[in-house]
């Protein structure tokens, strides 16, 4: 999918086929928290049985986490445990994880979803309160430590939440939900600050 | 808000992440075309709807997305226990007198 998209961009002359990320560059700052749309990244949705995990880990260059609500990160690439046989792999370093998986012969399903998701960073001392304004999970450091990742909900939209630091979260949502999620987090940020 | 234990995520999660998926342990016939109308009606429409303990399928929709089974009391709305899909009905329920 990524390969096809790249080919299209080089052969086309019209700028209308250029990638236009949703909400690019938008950011809202409130006292103690900043909500910011992150630049585009490469992402895949990975499904694989237990027997293929070792081969896929080797190809991706990081160990796919097997424990619920955990993630693994190495050299700009993060694998988030979403389900017993399901991972979300995000590459912010410009390398394509889909191409790495293509070399694996073990049974697996890797689907490019780079354009389906957008990422929002929520950072600052009030980040936890901001995300909790719409997310019902316990986000205290005991229950949701740094590196913890989970698919959950924010208001009415499904998100994938990753804690990147004590006071920073990475929120992934579908592109079509991005306006709702960003506005929700912006309102939450103002409430958390006040 | 209710907290429901997901057997795959191995922890209690808020009910907003879950969806009910009807009664559990209803086996589909291997020869569904050969079923009589009466048997098909029983399989497809008739549910036990008890007052008290019920065995249900639930899905951790906005979490690991897996289906699992739960034992719930329809009177108190309390979850007695949850277990993975495909596992047999628990022989003994914790905290239930009978």
Overview of the structural elements:
- The complex is a heterodimer of chains A (about 190) and B (about 100).
- With about 190 residues, chain A is of the alpha+beta class.
- Chain A has 2 domains: about 25-40 and about 115-194, Gyrase A, domain 2; about 40-115, Alpha-Beta Plaits.
- Helices cover about 25% and strands about 35% of the residues of chain A.
- Chain A has helices at about 1-10, 55-60, 95-100, 125-130, 180-194, and strands spanning about 25-30, 35, 40-45, 70-75, 75-85, 85-90, 110, 115-125, 150-155, 155-165, 170-175.
- A 6-stranded antiparallel β-sheet of chain A has the order 1-2-8-11-10-9. Chain A has a 5-stranded antiparallel β-sheet with strand order 4-5-6-3-7.
- In chain A, strand 10 (about 155-165) and strand 11 (about 170-175) form a beta hairpin.
- Chain A is globular.
- Chain A starts with a helix and ends with a helix.
- Residues about 5-10 of chain A have low confidence and may be disordered.
- Chain B has about 100 residues and is mostly beta strands.
- Chain B has one domain (about 5-85): Folate-binding fold.
- Chain B is built from 1 helix and 6 strands; from the N terminus they run βββαβββ.
- In chain B, the strands form 2 sheets. In chain B, strands 3-4-5-6 form a 4-stranded antiparallel β-sheet, with no helix packed on it. A two-stranded antiparallel ribbon of chain B has the order 1-2.
- In chain B, strand 4 (about 55-60) and strand 5 form a beta hairpin.
- The longest helix of chain B is centred in the middle third of the chain and has 8 residues, at about 35-45.
């Amino acid at each position: 999918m990524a390969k096809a998209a790249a080919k299209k961009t080089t052969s086309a002359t019209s700028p209308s086929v250029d990638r236009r990320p949703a909400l690019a560059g938008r950011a809202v700052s409130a006292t103690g928290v900043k909500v910011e749309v992150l630049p585009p990244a490469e992402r895949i949705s990975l499904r694989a049985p237990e027997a293929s995990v070792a081969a896929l880990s080797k190809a991706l260059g990081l160990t796919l986490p097997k424990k619920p609500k955990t993630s693994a990160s190495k050299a700009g690439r993060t694998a988030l445990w979403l389900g017993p046989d399901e991972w979300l792999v995000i590459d912010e370093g410009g390398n394509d994880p889909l191409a790495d998986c293509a070399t694996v012969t073990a049974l697996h399903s890797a689907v490019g979803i780079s354009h389906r998701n957008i990422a929002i960073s929520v950072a600052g001392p009030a980040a936890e309160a901001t995300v909790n304004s719409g997310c019902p999970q316990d986000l205290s450091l005991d229950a949701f430590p740094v590196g913890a990742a989970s698919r959950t909900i924010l208001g009415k939209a499904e998100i994938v939440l990753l804690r990147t630091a004590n006071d920073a979260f990475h929120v992934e949502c579908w592109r079509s939900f991005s306006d709702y999620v960003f506005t929700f987090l912006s309102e939450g940020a103002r409430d958390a600050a006040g | 808000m209710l907290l429901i234990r997901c057997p795959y995520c191995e922890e209690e999660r808020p009910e907003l992440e879950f969806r009910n998926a009807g009664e559990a342990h209803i086996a589909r016939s291997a020869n569904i075309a050969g079923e009589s109308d009466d048997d098909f009606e029983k399989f497809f429409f008739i549910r036990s709807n008890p007052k008290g303990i019920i065995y249900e399928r639930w899905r951790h929709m906005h979490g690991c997305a897996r289906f699992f089974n739960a034992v719930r009391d329809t009177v108190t709305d309390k979850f007695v226990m949850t277990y993975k899909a495909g596992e047999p009905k628990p022989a003994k329920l914790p905290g239930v007198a009978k």
